[in-house]
User: What shape does this take?
Amino acid sequence: MKYNRCGRSGLMLPAVSLGMWHNFGSCDVYDNAKKILCHAFDRGVTHFDLANNYGPVPGSAEETLGRVLKDGLGTHRDEMVISTKAGYDMWDGPYGNWGSRKYMIASLDQSLKRMGLDYVDIYYHHRPDPETPLEETMGALDHVVRQGKALYVGISNYKPEEAKRAFEILKDMGTPCLIHQAKYSMMERWVEDGLLDLVGNMGVGLIAFSPLAQGLLTDRYLNGIPQGSRMTKSQFLRPEHLTDEVMSKIVRLNEIAQERGQSLSQMALAWLLKDNRVTSVLVGASSTEQLDRNLGAIENCSFSSEELSKIEAVLEKQGAN
Ligand SMILES: NC(=O)c1ccc[n+]([C@@H]2O[C@H](COP(=O)([O-])OP(=O)(O)OC[C@H]3O[C@@H](n4cnc5c(N)ncnc54)[C@H](OP(=O)(O)O)[C@@H]3O)[C@@H](O)[C@H]2O)c1
Assistant: This one.
């Protein structure tokens, strides 16, 4: 594993981190979840990312991690970076969503209980809240650090302008923002419009989520939609996303990857990691084999200008879609 410094902090993160959004809920097979987590750790993937609502059912991914830690992995707690978040709908009534101090602090207490932990390494605000003053939400993040319930804090899904304000508020409070978690892949490039420059200039790390576009940027859908794939069971990735246009791009990108001696998933991850402002790519996996293949990306993250232009030509057509 290669470890990258997270912004201008003291914390190093693995170039590839593992997210527990899908495949680790109470509806999934516990033994498979445990196998993936332990294998990831054995391969040097020291960072595991969660949120209060990951499951399904909401909360159950945190319970799965708690169980795996209790089953033995927890003896390595100091070798791991565990993150969780709050910001989406989690419990009934006006205090289980968005960004109030009330919600942020109660949610972390619940998350810690589900995972059986005293603290998380990173606590995130999951998405901006248009109603709550940013000072209040950032104040809650600062507070949990002072309580010792989180070591670092981050934000997710904030656009550059609001991210800048959040960074400034946190800095003034004495709890600098460690990291921004943003959706970034060959298929989704909004971070190139100001956010990458911002985190680079302000010394904040960036972790790219859904770097494989939920599996589109792999060989998963090259020959149809396999039973059991995310596209057959998740509301977030549906067959209508696999348009002819998207399919032809995937085929073309796959050819370029092969010319580089990589799989498509490896090239998609390497393409993100070539920018040193990207601290880590946050992948999902439903098997240890997928994870292993993805870890191979680290072996070649450099691109010739010719390769980059070829990729750009394919992606630009994507944007016009
Ligand atoms: N902050 C936020 O708002 C936010 C939002 C979304 C996600 N996230 C974080 O980002 C993490 C990753 O998101 P993601 O799961 O969408 O990431 P992703 O890496 O883009 O997609 C993962 C899925 O792609 C397929 N896959 C992965 N490697 C493969 C391979 N080598 N060959 C074939 N298929 C492969 C698997 O799908 P199958 O199930 O079909 O096998 C896997 O579940 C989440 O777990 C979460 O921690 C954060």
Notes: The first strand starts at residue 3 and ends at 5.
